Each structure stands twice: as structure tokens, then as C-alpha cells.
Automatic annotation (TrEMBL):
Entries under PROSITE patterns matching the protein: THIOREDOXIN_2 (PS51352)
Protein name: Thioredoxin domain-containing protein
InterPro entries the UniProt entry points to: Thioredoxin-like_sf (IPR036249), Thioredoxin_domain (IPR013766), TRL33 (IPR044193)
Thioredoxin domain mapped to chain residues: 21-143
Protein species of origin: Chlamydomonas eustigma
């Protein structure tokens, strides 16, 4: 039996990931909390980690990149995104994996999608891997 192509609609929900026999491959243990990617960048895998990130950055504008492990554009653009985070240090950043999130990634139609949040509300969005456009938006929100 062929496995479906990876996309957010065919990915098993996190509760089913513990049953490695479903995939036929043993899976590594789930990480219980977000991890630090850089000085002000976190990796987010679950809705709870997303909520924690948003709550811990209330009052500030924060930036979340929504992408996935299989997204070639996300991988190609990540070094550029990471270098921009070093240039605009006042903003907190996160990279969210839409494959393992249930509710908070709904509505993300394009990968990568950069969402700017202020007090938990989306205030801006950049689609794709346009470095100049992303930098312009980072400059606007860098306070």
C-alpha cells in the first residue's frame, strides 16, 4: 500500500504518532517543549507550544514562520530568514511546523508563511520567500 504524499491534510494527528506500526517505522520520542534555534528563535511543533510562545511575547510584535519539514522553499529560505533575525534583534521569532499542529496552523495555505503577531492577534503576513519583502515588513515592525 502506497503512503499518500505529505501535506497537512494527510499527516497523522499527533495522537496517532505514538503508534509506530501505522507507519511501519519506529519514530523518535516526542519532544515535550519548544526548542531554541537561535538567540531569539524558537521551534514550535504543537498548538500548546504556539500558545506559550504567543503568551510569553504579549505586548511585543512577534514573527512566526509557518512551514513544514518537506517544504523545499522553507529549507532554501531559512538561512536568509535566520540572518534577518540577527539584523532585527528586538523581535522574537518562531518556526512552526504545520505538520504537527492541529488548530493554530489552520488557514495557512502557502509555505513558508510569515505571520506578525501583536498581543496574540495577526497584524501582518508575508507569503513566500521574498527576502526584500520580508525585510521591509521586519523593518516596519521593529520597534
Amino acid at each position: 500500500m502506497a503512503l499518500p504524499l505529505p501535506n497537512t491534510r494527510n499527516v497523522l494527528p499527533p495522537s496517532d504518532l505514538e503508534d509506530a506500526s501505522v507507519l511501519g517505522v519506529p519514530l523518535p520520542p516526542r519532544k515535550t517543549q519548544s526548542h531554541q534555534i537561535g538567540p531569539q528563535m524558537h521551534g514550535i511543533r504543537t498548538d500548546e507550544e504556539y500558545d506559550t510562545f504567543v503568551e510569553s511575547n504579549k505586548g511585543k510584535t512577534s514573527v512566526v514562520q509557518f512551514g513544514s519539514a518537506w517544504c523545499v522553499k522553507c529549507h532554501e529560505f531559512f538561512p536568509t530568514f535566520y540572518s534577518l533575525t540577527k539584523k532585527y534583534k528586538s523581535l522574537p521569532y518562531a518556526v512552526a511546523q504545520v505538520d504537527t499542529m492541529e488548530e493554530r496552523a489552520k488557514g495557512v495555505k502557502y509555505s513558508p508563511t510569515f505571520v506578525f503577531l501583536k498581543n496574540g492577534k495577526k497584524v501582518d503576513e508575508v507569503l513566500g520567500k521574498d527576502a526584500q519583502k520580508l525585510e521591509d515588513h521586519l523593518w516596519l515592525h521593529n520597534t
